[in-house]
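Marked as duplicate of an earlier ticket. Keeping the data here for the record.
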Amino acid sequence: MRIVIQRVLEAKVEVEGKVIGQIGKGLLVLLGVGQNDDEKIADKYIDKLLKLRVFSDENGKTNLSIQDVGGEILLVSQFTLYADCRKGNRPDFIKAGDAKKAKELYEYCLNQINKKLGKVESGEFGASMKVSLVNEGPFTIIFDEDMI
């Protein structure tokens, strides 16, 4: 898996001009599923995501997690996180998981985050989406196989 985490004051995702997911203070999470990913790997990422201390405490130190601040998550599927641009100028997505498996794992992540946090919105798997956000900081972190 690969995920890009952005601390936001607000974020939303639109499909065909309609807002389908919207949050206030929290995290915009772009999720890419790889060929070898499974629920066990997803659980590691979800645990790390929910415990990640990227919000400021009363002293201005990043000591608080999404759960500590009562924040929300907007989870958006993004297979392009698996782009390989080493050969030529056209990205190759061969390492991305197939659509059926990726959708199942994306939905698994949504359900697990909802169970643990209760405040999760989503994009639409496979749709052409417009994502907008107000990045706070900016504060952006990337998780991939080498970091979890």
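See parent ticket for discussion. The beta strands are 2-15, 18-23, 26-32, 55-56, 62-64, 72-77, 120-122, 130-143.
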